[in-house]
Amino acid sequence: MASSAKEEILARIRGARVPAAAPVVRGYHREGSGGVELFAERVADYRAVVRTVTDVPEALKSLRGKRIVAPSDVPDEWLVDGVTWLREPLSIEELDGSDGVLTGCAVAIADTGTIVLDGGVAQGRRALTLLPDHHVCVVRADQIAASVPDAANPPEPTRPLTFVSGPSATSDIELNRVEGVHGPRTLEVLIVT
Amino acid sequence: MARNPVTWLGSPTFPQAAHKALADTQLRQNLRKATGTIRGRRAAAVGEMTDWEQLRVAGEQIKDDVLSRLDTLLVRLEESVTARGGVVHWARDAEEANRIVLGLCREENATEVVKVKSMATAEIGLNEALEAGGVHAVETDLAELIVQLGDDRPSHILVPAIHRNRSEIREIFRRRMGVEVSDEPADLAEAARVYLRQKFLTTKVAISGANFAVADTGSIVVLESEGNGRMCLTLPDTLITVMGIEKLVPTWQDLEVFLQLLPRSSTAERMNPYTSVWTGVTPGDGPQKFHLVLIDNGRTATLADSVGRQALRCIRCSACLNVCPVYERTGGQSYGSVYPGPIGAILTPQLVGDMHDPQAASLPFASSLCGACFEVCPVRIDIPSVLTHLRAEAVEAKGRTAESVAMAAAAWMFASASRYEKAQKAGSLARFLARDGRITSLPWPGSKWTSSRDVPAPPSESFRAWWRKNRG
Ligand code: SF4
């Protein structure tokens, strides 16, 4: 009987006799120094909306009159009056028909202006931050890591992760970046200091 | 064995195709504009990193480490993915991979699937194979969609429709989507959004590639910009990921290197808008069935070549295309493969694995050996050395034909706009590319191959005369 594809591929790899490689030298910077200011600047570079706030409920009053998705475990104080809050369970159609979504994040990266979602507290499943056209993300100053190596080692890497750097965009037409394709076309980051 | 679909059936050799492409002024204009834009932006994005070289070295070493113990790492990856509820399949070649994916689509009774841009699936000709089996694959990346709706072929790794300008794209959208739309990039993007929205919300099976897979955890990583990737990776019930066996990294920590190298090298951004990472199946979030198809398709043969194997470090950023003077003048389609440009010139012939194939054997000559590709490559692939090595193999397989030499001469010519234009004016270009040109040797600056291997170079007398007049 012919050997399985797996066995054959593994045998070919062994047959290639690649010599052992030198140990990896991680001479790159492991730590950065950027904080809130750099993060705000870098997020804004992506043409996202950035607001530095001290009072989250106050800042969220701008959502009044809208239908906004909120994951089941957002802090109660975020659910300000005057907003129609949409809560799980929500169908794909309901998410698609909403005006926006409000979440927290797992960690953020100053160097690259990135927010990382891991489905943890105040973030919900991935579809919640994908289908609504406006994503409001609350980032606490103490969640901002300086660099990619600082942030990219999550305690539970097997959770589904989404790294978000600005609103949905494309560079496919003449290699120029334009914002707004399939993901949320408006990204609004509230940095809480 | 079936032919490897990494090259397009019936493609002419590189110099023949390039000769035709050079006559297309629109194409050259589009390419010059796009690659010029991205070159400047990449330089700026890389320039702000004070540790770029250290990152490149780490990237190179991590990938070399992977290649040196690929068997153990692949087995480890399979264990991790399986432990998290995924199913791993192995495919020796394109035909086997396509059969596996078609079978999985049929199991789900799917007649239409959504796809995230993926080089691996383009390499194996998956869309065509699915179509033949009654399953229609909808490309959802904007550039892939432009290629698909235009019944066209890709010409760039990152932006397959880079050869199209905005007004050509508008024409394709008008014709195929039946919509009136301006040629503003924002309007064109909006048209794609509307066109694909319903498909994202209703399609049950998605197919993706992978930028990286972490052997330790079984996590798969996809970088993208538009959100079409997130749609495909999140909404359907079933996700099928097709991945070349070399896409591994050993540990999670290694991602910190590549998440810095890739976006700046490819789209010249500090970070691309969206990076998705998933590990097997997560209850209540995303597809509840996950299949990972690992493909060889010429990679293990490439691995066996001590010089050529470094091509397997490639992370498909496309930086080498954007800086290549030959690519800029001939366009991606001249390479007759989904992998064009400098990386295509070294990867495609190795995946094909047959230097008696005249088209594949012509590809290592599609370069002036100027070295710009090596300088920008984030994983430090020494493309010029691999080119030289493969040229020697091609010459060995075929003998030193006038054709192979004309190819190298042509590539040298394309490398400089002024050289090319002068030659064109002098009327020597046609002869330059002719297969029966015959002349002794030519002073080719920067050509390692000609100097080290002493190959007789036969461009026409008129070129030599031209060279004497114009040198310096
Ligand atoms: S060879 Fe290097 S520069 Fe070219 S696409 Fe691959 S990684 Fe990028």
Automatic annotation (TrEMBL), chain A:
Protein name: L-lactate dehydrogenase complex protein LldG
Chain coiled-coil ranges: none
Classification lineage: Bacteria, Bacillati, Actinomycetota, Actinomycetes, Pseudonocardiales
Domain LUD: 94-192
TrEMBL record, chain B:
Keywords: 4Fe-4S, Electron transport, Iron, Iron-sulfur, Metal-binding, Repeat, Transport
Highest taxon in the source lineage: Bacteria
Occurrences of domain 4Fe-4S ferredoxin-type (ranges): 311-381
Domain Lactate utilization protein B C-terminal: 396-469
PROSITE patterns with a match to the protein in the record: 4FE4S_FER_1
InterPro entries: 4Fe4S_Fe-S-bd, 4Fe4S_Fe_S_CS, FTHF_cligase-like_sf, Helical_ferredxn, LUD_dom, LutB/LldF, LutB_C, NagB/RpiA_transferase-like
A GO term, aspect molecular function: 4 iron, 4 sulfur cluster binding
Start and end residues of each LUD domain: 76-281
One GO-annotated biological process of the protein: lactate metabolic process
Cross-referenced Gene3D superfamilies: Alpha-helical ferredoxin, NagB/RpiA/CoA transferase-like
Descriptive protein name: L-lactate dehydrogenase complex protein LldF
Organism, as annotated: Lentzea fradiae
Lineage, uppermost ranks: Bacteria, Bacillati, Actinomycetota, Actinomycetes, Pseudonocardiales
